[in-house]
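Observation: inputs received (chain + S-adenosylmethionine).
Thought: call the complex predictor directly.
Action: predict_structure
Action Input:
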Amino acid sequence: MTPSALPLGDPAPADGLLPAQAAEGAADRNFGLYVHIPFCSVRCGYCDFNTYTATELGGGASQDAYGGTAQQEVRFAAQVLEASGLPARKMGTVFFGGGTPTLLPAEDLAGILKTAVDAWGLEPGAEVTTEANPDSVTPQSLQLLADAGFTRVSFGMQSAVPHVLAVLDRTHTPSRVPEAVKWARDAGLKVSVDLIYGTPGESLADWKVSVEEALSYEPDHISAYALIIEDGTKLAARMRRGEVPPIDDDDHADKYLMADEMMSAAGLSWYEVSNWARTLPTSAGTTWPTGAAVTGGASAPARTRTPAACAGGTPSTPPPTRSGWLPVSHRRWAVKRSTLKPGMWKTSCCAPGWPRGWNCPG
Ligand SMILES: C[S@@+](CC[C@H](N)C(=O)[O-])C[C@H]1O[C@@H](n2cnc3c(N)ncnc32)[C@H](O)[C@@H]1O
Ligand code: SF4
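Observation:
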């Protein structure tokens, strides 16, 4: 696989400090921390996140050393923010994402969180989340996380249907998800689950089963992502070879509608492209927090799952609805093929209230 080119951008300042505009208006913005834990036991065939299996990274970025490296980076980030003239602010949201953060011992995650709280402090009621694979937690590890100050866990459920999980290369069985959800609740954690729709071979009935199953756990939050076939992934290669059928936009649109209807009927409200919540999470407030990202030497996640706002736009404002158009992912709108005009997918749209880079329906 050819490594991708580095993105265009300003060169890093020679003094290592943030540019002056980073401090402008910072006192009025929420401050959040994202900690990237780039390890997975197995790389799922569809995923292009910045993540590695156990033996791929060495030195300070090895799985054993990562907790200590991330703590050093938290301290360093705090020094850089202070030296760059940013005001001292407590963290309003903390998110440990991956990879699979819970592949590290819970003690390591607790240590990173403690270092961050010592550095910046935590707003009362702040949401502290970790992502987790359902088979990467135990009742004990979840209790330890809750005792350390985590308030919420986001499980990668993806589907409740075995043949769909198999195409996605998932390592957990469907029955592991409700088990893990119960352990999380027993530990006092709020629960979110991630689902993926439009996997090759998934029928509408399969998708209904997955949404019904997810709703039966009564989670506080559900993310439902349209499967994106990422260049360079195993699934993309399988599709190219004709081993699995291609993605179908109409199928995505139907499943998006079905998910929205079922979740709305169950009391979860749509608040952002792929997300439904019982109560709006703090990470989905009217202004996205700015803040530190600790990546332990690994670069930031391969994909931004929270789209940046257009100038003048409000990210949490639902995009304007146009008849027939559905925001099936951060990158795409789906429309029934009968109304699709040539070139529509190629136009990038940035209007107030629309996340940057979305395709413009018209
Ligand atoms: C970092 S992973 C979640 C945590 C954990 N590693 C797991 O998979 O259970 C974040 C979520 O991104 C979604 N995701 C990853 N790659 C995707 C793709 N190609 N298309 C759609 N969703 C994707 C999955 O739903 C996954 O749960
Ligand atoms: S979906 Fe989750 S478990 Fe699978 S490779 Fe990506 S980050 Fe790892």
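Thought: report the result.
Final Answer: The chain is about 30% helix and 20% strand. The pocket of S-adenosylmethionine (ligand 1) is lined by residues 46-47, 49, 97-100, 131, 133, 156, 158, 194, 196, 225, 227-228, 230 (CB under 6 Å).
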